[in-house]
Design brief:
The protein contains 14 helices and 14 strands. The protein has 394 residues and is of the alpha/beta class. The protein is globular, with a radius of gyration of 21 Å.
């Protein structure tokens, strides 16, 4: 077998992630690699923390990118804040709440589950009842933007409830950061983790996190060593420490990937994070208008719908996998399948970061309508692209 250099096809990525990576970010990856303790690299690290403050809307000193995907951010928050014997209220309304439960249990703690139907936001009333019934719980953990369903929960209220009952809040913002408001300080959130490959439009493999001073105090006051050496924030902060301080070796950072994240965060600051939120909302409104024009329905009610992750109900009798295959083969367009309880029931269409554009909205709608029409699907006879353009031109 002859093995040659890998040259991937040029796709338009409109699934649940990764998202399209902007050429500026791809270009940053190709810059010369320098040492992870090089003074110039250390200076870039300090800039990175400031840029993440803008993205997270926080002044938390402990705001850094971790070396690993969003799952590393999730696990880092849990292993540093949760100890054996703790009790944690875990909200589950999709796949990723279930992963939080796994993390709690692997820390030797007890997960007290608050469950809601997939496609619905976390019910704050249920959370408040659980807090009252379980005084002294260590934390409340929930997914702000549930990628498996496209639903957004009320993070401000859930964080406030946790704080009122003396509990920490641990928030999954993997899909929300950069796409919808993540207001760390305003919410009083204690730990938020995200990922580089969604609305930040960076390559996968980095997890921005921010932790409050209260969370820092909890980490310093632990009774047991953090169970993961690699994810021990006491050690990681020796490398990502205060501006101007000497840095201690912890691990070899993914240098070029950090160049890329730095560039994507500069682009977010140039646009303004508030403007990015508005752009994602506008693109989703146009997409939904186009889908509605051909009779396709959304899974999530408009009041709780994520603009950057749109779950679309599959018309009856349609081979959903064949539709996705046709889109990929004929249009180089990727959309996502349903997960877990929603497998075979929805498509997940992402409008994230650099991919949240009028061009992508109209490409997706035109291709989807063409494929469904060719497959003789029972859809409406409206013009999806025209309906979206009315919104885009308003």
């Amino acid at each position: 077998m002859t093995v040659t250099s890998f040259n991937p096809p040029l796709r338009t990525l409109m699934g649940p992630g990764p998202s399209d990576v902007h050429p500026r970010v791809l270009s940053a990856l190709a810059r010369p690699t320098i040492g992870h303790l090089d003074p110039q690299f250390v200076a870039m690290m300090d800039e990175m923390k400031g840029l993440l403050h803008h993205a997270f809307q926080t002044e938390n000193p402990l705001t850094i990118p971790l070396s690993g995907p969003g799952s590393v951010g999730m696990e880092t928050c849990f292993v540093n804040l949760i100890e054996p014997g703790d009790r944690v209220i875990v909200c589950q309304n999709g796949v990723f709440g279930g992963r939080m439960k796994e993390n709690v249990e692997r820390c030797g703690a007890t997960a007290i589950m608050v469950e809601d139907d997939w496609g619905l936001p976390v019910d704050p009333g249920k959370v408040e009842d659980a807090l009252k019934a379980n005084p002294g719980v260590k934390a409340v953990a929930f997914v702000h933007a549930e990628t498996s369903t496209g639903v957004q929960s009320d993070a401000a209220l859930l964080c406030r409830l946790a704080q009122e009952h003396g509990a920490l809040s641990i928030v999954d913002a993997v899909t929300s950061l950069g796409g919808t408001p993540v207001l760390t300080d305003e919410w009083g959130a204690d730990a938020i983790y995200s990922g580089s490959q969604k609305c930040l439009s960076c390559v996968p493999g980095l997890s921005p996190v921010t932790l409050s001073r209260r969370a820092e105090d909890v980490i310093r006051g632990r009774n047991h060593k953090v169970q993961s050496w690699f994810m021990d924030l006491n050690l990681i902060m020796g490398y990502w420490g205060d501006s101007g301080a000497s840095r201690s070796y912890h691990h070899t950072a993914p240098i070029n990937a950090l160049y890329a994240l730095h560039e994507s965060l500069i682009m977010l600051r140039e646009e303004g994070v508030e403007n990015a939120w508005k752009r994602h909302a506008r693109m989703s409104k146009a997409l939904v208008a186009g889908l509605s024009a051909i009779g396709l329905e959304m899974l999530v009610d408009e009041t709780a719908r994520l603009p950057q992750l749109n779950s679309v109900k599959i018309p009856e009798g349609v081979n959903e996998a064949e539709v996705r295959r046709r889109l990929l083969v004929d249009y180089d367009l990727e959309i996502g399948a349903g997960l877990g309880a929603l497998a075979g029931k929805v498509w997940r269409i992402g409008l994230m970061g650099a991919g949240a554009t009028p061009k992508n909205v109209t490409l997706c709608l035109g291709a989807l309508q063409a494929v469904l029409t060719d497959m003789k699907a029972d859809i409406g006879h409206g013009d999806a692209v025209q309906a979206a353009q009315k919104v885009l031109m308003a």
